[in-house]
Specification:
single chain; 231 residues; mainly alpha; two-stranded antiparallel ribbon; globular
């Protein structure tokens, strides 16, 4: 298999993205509809289908932990796309990138990394992604969820110990507002995440600025990074 044939979104390949990217510069709505289809296929096959398959089991024997774990990863994907944040694990420090860190608005120019040099204490951390997501994305921002609380006691606790901490609970059914009582109703939580995705889609296609003025540039930079790292 040639590197350009590697699948990055369902059956869509690196080569497919390269062909499409050339037509994104004219900002035509139809081209951006196709561009977002890459994002939809990537998260549908890697997140949405597995999440919904588990939810459809409806066993209520603990599978909610797997669901919310996937939802946490999906949140990181969505928020990093919106902001153009990329994760690097590189050995070549001559490019001014510290290994195993998140970076803001990385752009590829002639296959070289072009970013502002950041001090260790100023570079983006995983917790910042959740703080940004819950502070800025509808319908979550109205729930007043503390992103750092969620990160440490849900995301990290689930990932490392298969449990929630400090009073947080995962349940199947209920009302969203109860998240203030540290209860995540996994089914409704998923619907709210999908609302964020729909809002993001509208913003990408009609360019109504969901978060920053470089929304489309962030999208392109993120997929270019994915293609480069997949080879």
């Amino acid at each position: 298999m040639k590197n350009s044939d590697i699948k990055i979104a369902g059956n869509l390949t690196i080569n497919d993205w390269g062909d499409l990217e050339k037509g994104l510069k004219n900002m035509a709505v139809e081209n951006w509809g196709l561009a977002f289809y890459f994002f939809e296929e990537r998260i549908r096959t890697r997140y949405l289908n597995p999440i919904n398959t588990i939810l459809d089991m409806d066993l209520k024997t603990g599978e909610g932990f797997a669901v919310v774990n996937l939802q946490c990863s999906l949140i990181e994907t969505i928020e990093s796309f919106i902001n153009g944040w990329v994760y690097n694990a590189v050995k070549d420090k001559s490019k001014q990138i510290i290994a195993n860190r998140w970076y803001n608005k990385k752009i590829e120019v002639n296959n070289l990394v072009q970013i502002d040099k950041l001090d260790d204490d100023k570079s983006l951390k995983n917790v910042d992604i959740f703080i940004s997501f819950f502070n800025k994305r509808e319908p979550f921002k109205d729930l007043l969820i503390k992103g750092d609380d969620f990160f440490w006691n849900i995301r990290c606790a689930l990932l490392h110990e298969t449990q929630t901490k400090n009073g947080w609970k995962i349940k199947a059914n209920g009302v969203d507002k109860s998240i203030k009582d540290k209860i995540i109703y996994r089914d409704l939580f998923q619907k709210d995440i999908e609302t964020v995705i729909e809002n993001y889609k509208k913003s990408i296609i009609v360019n109504d600025n969901i978060t920053t003025i470089g929304l489309r540039e962030n999208f392109i930079a993120k997929f270019n990074h994915i293609c480069k790292e997949s080879q």
